[in-house]
Amino acid sequence: MTDELTVERKKSLFTPANTVFGIIVVAGLIATVIRFTKGLSAVTNLTSYYPWGIWIWFKLVAVSLAGAGYVTCAAAYVFGMKKYHSAVRPAVLIGLLGYSLFTVSLVFDLGRPWRLPYPFVVSQGTTSVLFEIGLCVAFYLTVLLLEFSPAGLEWLGFRKIRNVAIKMTMLLTIFGIVLSTLHQSSLGALFLSAPSKLHPLWYSGYLPIYFFITSIFGGLSMVIFVSWLSDRYLSDKMDATYLEEKNGVVLGFGKAASLVMIGYFFIRVFGISTDNSWHYLFSSWGVLLGVELLGFVMLPALLYAIGAREKNVQLIKWTSVITILGIILNKFNISLFAYNWQLPAADRYFPSNLEIVLMVFFITIGILAFRIIASLMPVLNEHKDYQAPTH
Amino acid sequence: MSISRRRFLKWFGAANLVLLPGKTAISSTGHHFNGYPDSGGVLYDMTLCIGCRKCEKGCNDVNELSAPEKPFDDLSVLDQKRRTGNQSYTVVNRYTSSTNPEKPVFRKMQCNHCLEPACAAVCFVKAFKKSPSGAVVYDASVCVGCRYCMLACPFEVPTYEYDEAFTPRVRKCTLCQPRITEGLQPGCVDACPTDALIYGKRDDLLKIGRERIKNRPDGYIDHIYGETEMGGTSWLYLSDVPFREIGMREDLGNKPALEFTAGALSAVPMVVGLWPVFLLGAYGMSKRTDKNAKEETKAAVTVSLEKAKVEADSKLTLALKKADRLNQKEIEKAVKKALADVEEKKDEIPES
């Protein structure tokens, strides 16, 4: 019996997907060694004009989608939508991994990562937006760990500590929402410091609000997208409650995302109106903004609405992909493409191969970590010893 | 009564002294920082610059930077647009202007030493400081290497030692802080053969600049670049061609970088204070809705139960009444029958 199992396991480990993951991980580890022995110039194309490259882009996207954690907790606990409870754990796991990858990629990006505690303990630069982000992310990562801890503790069988952790749910949820509001918006505020460098169609005094709102529908879409992937690859881990509630989650989150995105579309337009940047629309930048706002905000907002109205779960799932691509495009424009837009082409940045390899490596770690944790711990199901009647 | 009032005022004054210790760097009163008094700067008159690159050499020498690929007297490098670098804190570029395309215009670039520097405002470890001398100085011993200073600098000045694996630093002009504290001039100013660069107190330099523009109104653009740009810089520029034609941004505005993020940062305490209130309110409302729903269900159940009871009661009464009526009829029937029987018997008796 055990022999059979190991054979089956071996077979399942060497799937084409796993082989690709394996190659990426090995390449990533080699690039990591180069990064930390030869310096940033050995693995990146960063220049004095472009101190921030695709890893910053990755961080902005990761944190935006990691909004899944606070948005789902808010819906389930604060707004009392009990039918979304089974979505909380996968969403918190998405959040935890998003922020962990943010921190991991930060270690690669910083010139002297071992000085990461300096802003807190050595010299506090309180006028810096980055100081606030650092503080919030450090706290929020702790909050996410505590929020996810019941799953780990149930898996390990530490009933007493687990029950204490469960009691803190409401407190942690409120903490999490406050911290997320602050740093999600502050990531946008980072770029407020560079009004002369960011294209006027993307630069706005409202950038912090844009980033915060993006994290709401980004988080909602990520929950939908990951539940779709889980359906395909982790369906054996789902229990009856999860299966019963999952379509309701997809429909409800799609509907919510649709509403938020329509609001977001309008505040983006209002931003252009406030700064009177209309004339920039009649340029190639205007076309790009049109693609971003009409193709990747308005269109998915409408598709979500249609999907929710017609109870078309499949349409909503596909729409979540469009929405996430839209967020990737938006962060790309802000951090790279519309940044330093006035520079001549020769001075502009294009990432190096190893820079791309490492970014793919970060994403791969995230996917693998989700798969492993969701397979081991009660994430897509309730642990049979802890099924609370009130849940 | 009067004593206690006086005492109160005394306490009030004392409390003020305790609660307001000195000035704060950023106050909410819209106060504008005009630089440290008597701080130094450089006036760069581009009409006098001949593009000889001696300033580049002077900078290289005093900062002990590595030798460039092409020697400093090789002026062919001017054919390309260069920027500051790890081994070149200052560079001179050549431009052609629309006013006189025949005559080349040279512009030296280096750190402008802002009065309220963007690099200092955005640094999360306070590695940059505006020193009273006028120089914006960098402290590598606390630098984490996030490079936010480079993103924020509107003049594209700081550079980074990307090729250092363990001790990378941000590099930029220091206004020769070690030299000026010794009473010497910055290396570039010292090396300039045409007095295109003058080192002095910023206030004096502004006066000199205005004087030159006044004396030769046709020879200068009527603006001292750096007087107000980004809240003002210690490096001041005079030119006879529009600044935008020689690669200098005219759209930077006169607000110091600190103000771009001040609004966003000021929202932080409000979010911390009010979000929990709103969230608990929302939580309370959802709980209340649940409770109301439960109570309504309960009330509805009670009502329908009562209604059912009333109905049942009335049905019972009806049934009882009906039963009564039936009984009555039965009795009447029985009585009638009995009477009839009696009558019958009566009739029978006389016969017998």
Content-based structural category of chain A: mainly alpha
Oligomeric category: heterodimer
CATH superfamily of chain A: Formate dehydrogenase/DMSO reductase domain
Helix run count of chain B: 8
Give a structural overview.
The complex is a heterodimer of chains A (391) and B (352). With 391 residues, chain A is an all-alpha fold. Chain A has one domain (21-379): Up-down Bundle (Formate dehydrogenase/DMSO reductase fold). Chain A has helices at residues 2-13, 16-38, 40-43, 54-65, 68-78, 85-109, 118-121, 129-156, 159-167, 169-189, 207-233, 240-275, 284-309, 313-337, 353-376. In chain A, helix 8 packs across helix 9 (159-167). The longest helix of chain A has 36 residues, at 240-275. Chain A is globular. The relative contact order of chain A is 0.15. The model of chain A has no long low-confidence stretch (mean pLDDT 92). Chain B has 2 domains: 33-256, Alpha-Beta Plaits (2-Layer Sandwich); 265-352. Helix content of chain B is 44%, strand content 11%. The longest helix of chain B has 94 residues, at 258-351. The chains are: A mainly alpha (391), B mainly alpha (352).
